[in-house]
Write a structure and sequence with these properties.
This protein has 256 residues and is of the alpha/beta class. It has a single domain, classed as NAD(P)-binding Rossmann-like Domain (Rossmann fold), CATH 3.40.50. The protein contains 9 helices and 7 strands. The protein is globular and about 55 Å long. The structure holds nicotinamide-adenine-dinucleotide. Nicotinamide-adenine-dinucleotide (NAD) binds next to helix 1, strand 2, helix 4 and helix 7.
Length: 256
């Protein structure tokens, strides 16, 4: 699918990987609706892109808020052709605390609600809207891109909830691609390694150095623009479907 005149809905689009994706897709000729909870950053993107970017404050885990956001994208730009799921949270928490008491269930539920249920919520709404699109010469009506993590495969201590949520995103990719094939909608997932987003700015230098040590080549953090380029390639390459691509410079995470 090409980008000219298409509309992308990008969750978590105000920051990090989502923001880089919005900027690159707009540069390539698309419009974008940013779905996020950060009003200041959302407004900044809208102001910088002169009618090509809209923002709607939306919790991806809330069904009626996502229904309203997809309606807003259609009102603003006429259709939804591409959906990129970047909204995510990931504060670590162990199963048991230092005294051996289990940590509250609410934390696990929150991470699953945003990362996994939120991804499903947005992709199901986007698919519903995409069915109405005119197919292109290849029969494509839409492209959905989810964001997992290398933690889906080798999560560290403290990442039970995050890894489970991202493993769930990897797991739903193929069955949803199989189901939506009849509507001409492709579904792909990107599993990033360590990408330099605002997430990293809060980490101590030693922690960042230790993460870089786990990267094979090139031995540095990834850039959000590298994620955006892969997402754009997935949109443009109709033969990519039903798969998760690791984008991690061969990094494999250690247990801690
Ligand atoms: P980020 O914190 O810069 O951006 C995430 C955005 O999601 C924020 O703008 C936040 O406001 C928004 N968000 C959070 N909860 C939301 C909700 N309930 N509804 C709507 N928006 C919400 O983080 P990032 O590094 O750009 O991460 C983007 C995605 O990539 C996440 O799913 C993350 O798990 C995944 N990821 C990131 C890395 C990395 O190294 N940066 C690695 C692997 C996976």
């Amino acid at each position: 699918m090409d980008f000219a005149g298409k509309t992308a809905v990008v969750t978590g689009g105000a920051s990090g990987l989502g923001r880089a994706t919005v900027e690159y897709f707009v540069e390539k000729g698309a419009n974008a609706l940013v779905i996020d909870l950060n009003d200041d950053l959302g407004a900044e993107l809208v102001a910088a892109h002169d009618g090509k970017v809209a923002y709607k404050k939306t919790n991806v885990a809330d069904e009626s808020e996502v229904t309203a956001a997809i309606e807003y994208a259609k009102e603003q730009f006429g259709s939804v052709d591409i959906a990129v799921n970047c909204a995510g949270i990931g504060t670590p928490q162990k199963v048991l605390d230092r005294e051996g008491n289990r940590n509250p269930l609410a934390y696990f539920q929150k991470i699953i609600a945003v990362n996994l249920v939120g991804t499903y919520n947005v992709l199901s709404h986007a698919a519903e809207a995409m069915q109405a699109n005119e197919p292109n010469a290849d029969g494509e009506r839409g492209v959905i891109i989810n964001t997992a993590s290398v933690a889906a495969y080798e999560g560290q201590i403290g990442q039970a909830a995050y890894s489970a949520s991202k493993g769930g995103v990897v797991g739903l990719t193929l069955p949803v691609a199989r189901e939506l094939a009849r509507s001409g909608i492709r579904v792909m997932t990107i599993a990033p390694g360590f990408i330099h987003t605002p997430l990293f700015d809060g980490l101590p230098e030693a922690a960042v150095e230790s993460l870089k040590e786990q990267v094979v080549f090139p031995k540095r953090l990834g850039q959000p623009a590298e994620y955006a380029k892969l997402a754009a390639h997935i949109v443009e390459n109709a033969y990519l479907n039903g798969e998760t691509i690791r984008m991690d410079a061969a990094a494999r995470m250690a247990p801690k």
